[in-house]
Amino acid sequence: MHYKNQTRILAATDCIIFGFDGLNIKLLLIQRGFEPEKNKWSLMGGFVEPSESPDDAAVRVLAECTGLKNVYMEQFQVFGNPDRDPVERTLSIAYFALIDINKYQNQLSDKYHAEWFLLTEMPKLIFDHEEMVKLAMRQLRYKAALHPILFKLLPPKFTIRQLQTLYEGVYQTKFDDRNFSRKLLSTGLLVKLPEKDKLSSRKGAFYYELNHSNYQENFEAFLNLVPNPDKFF
User: Fold this and answer.
1) Torsion angle of the four alpha carbons 116, 210, 71, 57, in this order, in degrees rounded to the nearest 10
2) Would you give the distance in Å from CA 29 to the centre of its chain?
3) CA 151 from chain center: how many Å?
4) Where residue 227 sits, what CATH number does that domain have?
5) Domain, as residue range, for 59
6) What angle, 0 to 180 degrees and rounded to 10, lies between the N-to-C axes of helices 177-186 and 160-171?
7) Looking at the structure, do residues 161 and 72 belong to the same domain, yes or no?
8) 16-34: per-residue pLDDT in tens?
9) 114 partner at 20 to 30 Å CA-CA among 17, 100, 154, 195?
10) 80-106 pLDDT per residue, tens
11) For the whole model, what pTM was predicted?
């Protein structure tokens, strides 16, 4: 049975994978393997098969294009401009993730020349993929302000400098060192440890860990870490 007089529309998924290498936030791209725009830089995308859910398709497409598996991706928007694909009318269901590059580097496949790019050095992308990246980054920043997702990219114990570097990467801005440290410690959401990191300076920097129990009740305190939040969301 089919619905009468209805136009068939293709459904695809596109995966926006951000990664943190310890110093910078980067974006994973591939060279498209088929026409149109073959060999141009692209997000990891592919069509949803009749037997798949969009979530299943996104997992499959990411693995086929890059080799990456067991990556938690969040669906965040459908892109459906009528002329977004020059071949056929196609809706794309977009997913994004933020991962630790070092943990997944060994999985990366060279099938489609997958490569990490600094956000400031991102090449021109096909179709509406640059818009996808822009909106995915805004969603990531919003999530990072409300949930402890960035802490999953840090070791169990970390320095304030390490956390500041991560925040600066996500928000693509430079925070004042003293203000960031003061605001961070004023949240009361970190536990200071007796150990120090002696590698970064002679004096050393104390390690901290996230107070998970206190975080659930006071997570909004982290919103103060980001100056002018309206500029990012």
Assistant:
1) -110
2) 12
3) 13
4) 1.10.10.10
5) 10-145
6) 110
7) no
8) 999 999 889 999 999 999 8
9) 154
10) 999 999 999 999 999 999 999 999 999
11) 0.89
